[in-house]
């Protein structure tokens, strides 16, 4: 731990006020989402506790507001602050899971392509090139549509969360694959890899134990930046009605619901989830930008 606090990475972090502020905001967002069952004033998904008479209450600072609902309520009488905290849990879950999935796939493909080379490299990179020609949101929509068409209707809500994680994750792996492949092409010709070959280590062990640790720096940067993109992709899919089910609403679902009432005066139903989404993604992206600069001395 002491070595970390004495490192250049920590020094760079503490010297950037914007990065420190972004880290604090990101921590608050993640902590609020993870601890929503404890910190949220209400459980917005407990149907027995909802009161339709409390629907469309404006924020507490308005003349008709109620201090019980600081950010107002939606059309079903759900507390917006609690709904945002619970919705952020789903958005973060999808974001983290999708990034982990795309990282595992992309790093594996990139290592194999870069280390083995030849026909394996050509085949894997052509597949990545083909996928890169399609927008990631289009790929996610296509996968979601195919799964919905293949699976029985009664199972849609049960697998919707896994489908959206797979759809977002599988659409972003080429970025990791191409980055890792480029780094692996450099590393595989260095002396330590040649020495590992000479002593008889298998290619799999060389890739796992020697090459992989030396190509992880750019992967961490891409993963951090992709977390924000994954959260936005999930919000986009949910806004279009093909994301997580209504029983597990995310921030995108809340924005879609509020959009129906935006022009009738109940602006808070869509504005507050939208602001929460922007703040969360912006803080993560700023951290990713700092990490990219901190791990690449030429960009400092």
Low-confidence stretches: none
The H/E string reads: HHHHHHHHHHHHHH
Strand percentage: under 5%
Work out the helicity level: 55-70%
Q: What class would the helix/strand composition place it in?
A: mainly alpha
Supply Rg: 23 Å
Count up the helices: 14
Give the termini distance in whole angstroms: 24 Å
What is the oligomer described by this structure? Answer: single chain
Shape: globular
According to DSSP, the number of beta strands is 0
Mean of pLDDT: 86
Biggest sheet character: none
Outline:
This protein has 300 residues and is mainly α. It has helices at 2-5, 8-14, 17-34, 36-39, 80-116, 118-132, 136-150, 156-170, 173-187, 191-198, 203-211, 216-239, 251-259, 268-295.
Give a structural overview.
With 300 residues, this protein is mainly alpha-helical. The chain has 14 helices and no strands. The protein has helices at residues 2-5, 8-14, 17-34, 36-39, 80-116, 118-132, 136-150, 156-170, 173-187, 191-198, 203-211, 216-239, 251-259, 268-295. Helix 5 runs antiparallel to helix 6 (118-132), helix 5 packs parallel to helix 9 (173-187) and helix 9 (173-187) runs antiparallel to helix 12 (216-239). The longest helix has 37 residues, at 80-116. It starts with a helix and ends in a 5-residue tail after the last helix.
